[in-house]
Amino acid sequence: MIMQARAISSAAVIMALLAAGCSGEKPAEMRSLKITGTVQLPEAFEPTGELHVEAYHAWTGTGELRHPLLFIGSFTAPVGDFSGTIDYPADAGEGLVVYAWADSDGDGVLCTPQNATELAGLTEVAGFPADEITVELNLNANCKAPNWFFPPAR
Amino acid sequence: MQSGIRILAALGIVLLAACGRTPEPGVLIDGRRIPVIDMHLHTGTWELTPPGFRKRLSDRVPTGFKWTMGLFVDYNLRGETIIGQLDSAGISAGGLFAVYSPATTGVAGNEFVAGEIATVPGRFYGFASLRVDDWNNNSAAELARLEAGVQLPGMHGIKVAHGHQQFRFDDRRFDGIYEICGRLGKPAYLHTGTSPNPGTRTEAPYADPAYLEGAIQAFPDCIFIIGHSGYDSHNKALTFTDSAIALAGRYSNVYLEPGALGAERADALRADYLRRIKAGGVIDKLIYGSDGPQFPGYVKSHLQAFVAGMQEAGYTAEEIEQILSGNFLRVFKLPPIQLGDTK
């Protein structure tokens, strides 16, 4: 009986220690990236509304889980020359891709079934990692997601 | 020492799973038993679960037990374990999905799924899939993978998840998927709405089935099953459900599935969802699925909540039977289920 009680209390202590134990997980180290850029638009396009700028690692993962375009941050700015900063976890992926689209109708969505005229573009950045980058984006494709442009056809 | 604890934990899981009494198959409605097919089930492995999704799953577990997650997931997602869950819920058969979502929910390849199906003959209907993340380079090879996948033993349809696989519904580069669907007569299940899984695209072009209308019109021979009926799980709302119902009402090749709308997370939405289905006149288009197994007991609780919701909403026994199995059997051209023949 005493042995049984000891075994139960020992098991309870072990369970409590496990439930409260350390996981060994450390919070991801964060880095800041300042993105400055210019956009090129077709002549007929009037630069109004917001520009949605999104940053992605070009690639991440290993083996069957390796994939392109890991989203790491975004900001908005008036359509035209832009600048903004994102904070992203270090060591989550490789390379950098900057994508942007112009929200011409102000609805926050890149195109709808009724409006297929909003422009997007993407550029892959050389010289990353860095704390600051400068990009030039040519917004020349209607309603296209990042994976339309990247990875490009080899 | 560590391996001893792992073995004890595995034994505990097995014993817990074996404790339940197997009920009679089907659900009892107005004095008769109605057969049930759960068309939306997932298999997979911890090894091919991406870091973000691993963290989401592990966050449900006390800190000191996180190391058991791999063991639990590998056991919980095996074909035989899933069948145990179906048996304890009285469900006769299930759809089992391949997924290629390396950025979000992971990879369960076509051959892997076919292998799990083979472990429990006659209980699963498989759905094959393909990768889409390097489409500018690999589209031909991936379409070939899909075409071969849907012809593996036990495969009956196609599964894609635009939000998880991060491609827009209106991106017509992917029309080859629907061409295979129509040409080979393998209905396509498409995840719609949002999900709380890390990395999922939640913007309307990845969530609102209205963006699919061009493909639906272009491929009338392909049956589109609009998964989750546009349920915006991320925001716990029926944001895109009216879009889904409108398409099912308008096109003969569009069906709906209510995956996760029987879950506790959707308790506040279920009555409204079922009212909209009835008002939209699309009961003959709704094919039951749960998005299980998730955790032990999920497929059963999802079914119970969904059936209770249909009864509260005044669905007749005939309508409930259409949703729980009749519509699936009709769409997939399968013979009626004889209850008691599931073992």
Give the SSE map.
The complex is a heterodimer of chains A (154) and B (343).
Chain A: H1 2-20, E1 30-40, E2 50-60, E3 67-78, E4 82-89, E5 96-103, E6 119-125, E7 132-138, E8 141-142, H2 146-149
Parallel strand pairs in A: 1-7
Antiparallel strand pairs in A: 1-4, 2-3, 2-5, 5-6, 6-8
Chain B: H1 2-18, E1 27-29, E2 32-34, E3 37-42, H2 51-58, H3 69-76, H4 79-89, E4 93-97, E5 99-101, E6 106-108, H5 110-119, E7 124-128, H6 135-149, E8 155-161, H7 162-165, H8 175-184, E9 188-191, H9 204-207, H10 213-218, E10 224-227, H11 241-250, E11 254-256, H12 270-279, H13 298-312, H14 317-331
Parallel strand pairs in B: 3-4, 4-7, 7-8, 8-9, 9-10, 10-11
Antiparallel strand pairs in B: 1-2, 5-6
Helix pairs in contact in B: 4-13
Rg of chain A (C-alpha, Å): 24 Å
List the helices and strands of chain B in order.
Answer: HEEEHHHEEEHEHEHHEHHEHEHHH
Whole-number average pLDDT of chain A? 89
Task: Report the average pLDDT across residues of chain B.
Answer: 93
Alpha-carbon distance between the two ends of chain B: 39 Å
Described by the principal axes of the CA atoms, the overall outline of chain A is: elongated
Largest interface, with counts of residues having CB < 8 Å to the other chain, equals: A-B, 31 and 32 residues
- Total helices of chain A: the number is 2
Strand sequence of the main sheet of chain B, in spatial order?
3-4-7-8-9-10-11
CATH topology (level 3) name of chain B: TIM Barrel
CATH superfamily of chain B, by name, is Metal-dependent hydrolases
Whole-number count of domains of chain B: 1
Helix coverage percent of chain A: 10-25%
Quaternary organization: heterodimer
Name the strands of the widest sheet of chain A in spatial order: 3-2-5-6-8
Q: Main β-sheet of chain B: number of strands, strand sense, barrel status?
A: 7 strands, parallel
What gap, in angstroms, lies between the N and C termini of chain A? 74 Å
**Biggest sheet features of chain A:** 5 strands, antiparallel
